[in-house]
Design goal:
With 306 residues, this protein is α/β, with parallel strands linked by helices. The protein has eight helices and twelve strands. It has a six-stranded parallel beta sheet, with helices on both faces. Strands 7-8-9 form a three-stranded antiparallel beta sheet. The protein is globular, with a radius of gyration of 18 Å.
Length: 306
Amino acid sequence: MEKRKVVILGAGHVGSHCAYALAAAGTCEDIVLVDLIAEKAYAQALDVADSVSFMPRPVAVRSGDFEECRDADLVVVAIGEPRQPGQTRLDLLGRSVEQLKELIKVLKPMKLACPVVTITNPADIVADYLRKGLELERWRCFSTGTLLDTARLIRCISQAAEVDRRSVCAFSMGEHGDSSMIPFSAVTVGGIPFEKLGLSKEKILIHTRQAGMEIIEGKGSTEFGIGRALAELAGCILRDEKRVLPVSVLLDGEYGQRGIHCGVPCRIGKDGVEAIVELDLSEEEQKLLEASCQVIRKHIALAATL
């Protein structure tokens, strides 16, 4: 039986919760946690491994070193520092770039053949920096982008419309950050267009954007949401599901943008991003996406100078 292997680089709050979410979902058979602090990776792996005793599928959860990436089916980059109350994701850029430089030195000689997904903030800029540093095709190196924003959006709409979340079809797009936008023209609830629901676009947008900071101010970090989002994305890759999810991939003319990573709906399969889905945005929505892309573009340029 083929054993699918996922290596998670970074065993902090986020990395460890990604490991747990992968194990709980039975997404793969081998999960390896890697961290510069080896004792931390070992302890986190051992803790997650204990939980597997009560799960329906056998999963090996262990710690290892960077060499584990050579034969991985998926590499997840979860290095970096958590946001503090009052910080935006963009405030983390300097420290993230410092750590990425060291990571690239280790990974680049391996010439990784599997998809590389990053969840390190600021998500869009980090994805661009890592892809360039590793010299990978745009389809194989991308970030979770607005996938978590979309989970929050679906929750907000579900609560406002008083319907089950599975009846909501919606995407958050643009930056994984304060400039994210929602193409409400493409949102439906039980097949009914958002415009006919009588809900406030402004309230939905505000609640979606502020959800992350509310969590950080309340308990210091976000972890469960991104862990489950990563597991969902990993499942699409490892099972070649060809499901449409929003991730931050390099745009090359799609949505009128070039040279930047941006959260957009993509068809996800075994090789990573198989296709970018271009929604028919309204003129106003296109301007909002452009404004968000400008924020990303500015910080990609800044990252190159660090």
